[in-house]
Structure formats: C-alpha cells, structure tokens
Design brief:
Residues 1-25 have a biased composition (Polar residues). The chain crosses the membrane at residues 64-85, 114-139, 151-169, 181-203. Residues 1-54, 223-271 are annotated as: Disordered. It is a single chain. The chain has 271 residues and is an all-alpha fold. The protein has a domain at 56-214. It has helices at 4-42, 56-85, 88-101, 107-140, 146-167, 180-204, 207-213, 215-270. Helix 2 (56-85) runs antiparallel to helix 4. It is elongated, with a radius of gyration of 44 Å.
Length: 271
C-alpha cells in the first residue's frame, strides 16, 4: 500500500502540467502571430527599379560622351587662355578686314573688339557644352526626349570627327609668343576628343542604344503604319477592280438580254 501512493500522484501531476502547458501555448502562439504580423507590416518592401538596366553599348556611349565633354571643356579653356595670352593674330585679321572696308578705327577700340570676341566665343562654346551635357543627361535617364538627344549628340560627334581630320593639316602661328608645347597639348586634346567621338558614333548607332532611346520602337511603329496603309490601298484597289468587274458583267448581261429580246422580236415578225 505504501508503494502504490506515489505512483498514483505522478500521473495527476503530469496531467496538471499538461493542462497548464496547453493553456499557456495558445497565448504564446497568439503573441508570436502578432509579432510576425507587426514585423511583416513594418518591414520595408524592396523597391522595384522603374528604369531598366542600361545595355553595355549605352554605358560605353554615355561614358565616352562624358569623357568628350570634359576634354573638350579643357580644350576650350586652354584655347581662350592662349587667345588672351597672344591676340596678335586676331588683331592682324581684324585690322586687315577694317582696312579692306576703308574705315578708320582706333587701336584701343580694335583691342576691345578682339578681346570681346574672344570672351564671346568662349561663352558660346561653354553654352554648347552645357547643351550637350543636358542631352547626355536626358539620354542617360531614358527621358522621352532621349531620341532627340541621341540625334543631337550624333550630329556633334560628326563635327568632332571632321575636326579630327582637319587638325592634322593645321599648324600653330610661328610668329606667336606662345611656346609650342601649348599648341601640342591643345592638338592632343582635340585628337582625344575626335577619337572618342568616332567611338560614340559606333556605339550610338547600335540597335541596343536605339532600343534604349525608344527610336527603334518608333521605327517599328512607322513600319507597321506604312504596311497598314499599303494594305488599305491594296484593299481599296481590289474593291475598285471588283466593282468595275461587276459593272462590266452587268453591262454584258444587259446586252445579252437585249440581244435575246431583239432575236425574239425578229422571229415573231418572220412568223
């Protein structure tokens, strides 16, 4: 009897612990569920990239044009500095043009006009570079005007390529006070710009770049519209031909009926 009492208490304790665990577990599960819901609400959702990834040709194209703009800016600054350093060549050209026109002008006014023209040309060059930088930004961001930007960059790429060909036939002023090394540096800058411009023409004309700017899609739409217009014209032509054929058949049938009637009348008259 003494050995049976502890054995009877153990199952009672185990059942009590089980009921307590069961009563606690739903609360714990509910708390865990609330925590998971809060985490799911508070956790930031990953942002989807609205702009597609740039193709390799577009990346090369934009980097090359960025290089062109930077080097061309350095070239323009150096060109303005050299012109301000020794404006004798420009002064001689201005004096010769004034002499040909037969007008008299003072030397101070002549110098003012020469320096003013140098500064004005420099400002125009910087503004053009700013315009090209804006076009490059629009193309890089895949703006709705990206096609226009690529065409404008293509035009200036042709200009820089043509200047590369011309630069080999030019030479500095031998009577100038400017050291020759500056002319060499300026010429090398123009060569770098020209070579990079040739590469931009290559990468800018690829189908990947045209597809990125939306020009390829526009070309496809124009082709589809042209085909649809050709199909409409062909359909109208077929309808006109069918109408003419029907009119001819109607006329022929009318003539045959008239001939039959005339034949009947002649037969009746003979009788």
């Amino acid at each position: 009897m003494v050995n049976l009492q502890p054995q009877s208490r153990e199952p009672e304790l185990s059942t009590k612990n089980a009921t307590k665990a069961n009563s606690v577990s739903p609360r714990a599960d509910g708390a865990k569920g609330k925590n998971l819901q809060e985490q799911s609400v508070t956790s930031p959702s990953p942002k989807k990239s609205q702009r597609p990834q740039q193709p390799e040709s577009v990346r090369f194209y934009t980097r090359l044009w960025a290089f062109v703009l930077v080097v061309e800016f350095v070239h323009q600054v150096l060109n303005i500095a050299l012109a301000l350093w020794d404006p004798s060549e420009l002064q001689a050209q201005a004096a010769s043009s004034i002499e040909e026109s037969g007008q008299a002008i003072s030397e101070s006014l002549l110098n003012f006009g020469v320096y003013g023209s140098i500064v004005l040309m420099g400002l125009i060059s910087v503004l053009l570079l700013g315009l090209l930088a804006t076009m490059l930004y629009l193309l890089n961001k895949q703006h709705k005007r990206a096609g226009l930007a690529r065409r404008m960059l293509f035009f200036f790429g042709l200009y820089f390529t043509f200047r590369l060909v011309v630069i080999f036939g030019s030479s500095g002023n031998p009577l100038s006070e400017i050291p020759e090394v500056f002319y060499i540096i300026d010429g090398n800058l123009q060569v770098l710009v020209g070579v990079a411009a040739v590469l931009t023409l290559i990468f800018g004309g690829r189908n990947e770049t045209l597809d990125y700017t939306g020009e390829l899609e526009r070309m496809r739409q124009m082709e589809q519209e042209l085909r649809a217009e050709q199909e409409r014209r062909a359909q109208k032509k077929k309808e006109k031909q069918a109408k003419k054929q029907a009119e001819r058949e109607a006329r022929n049938s009318g003539k045959s009926e008239d001939a039959q009637k005339a034949q009947k009348i002649s037969q009746d008259a003979e009788r």
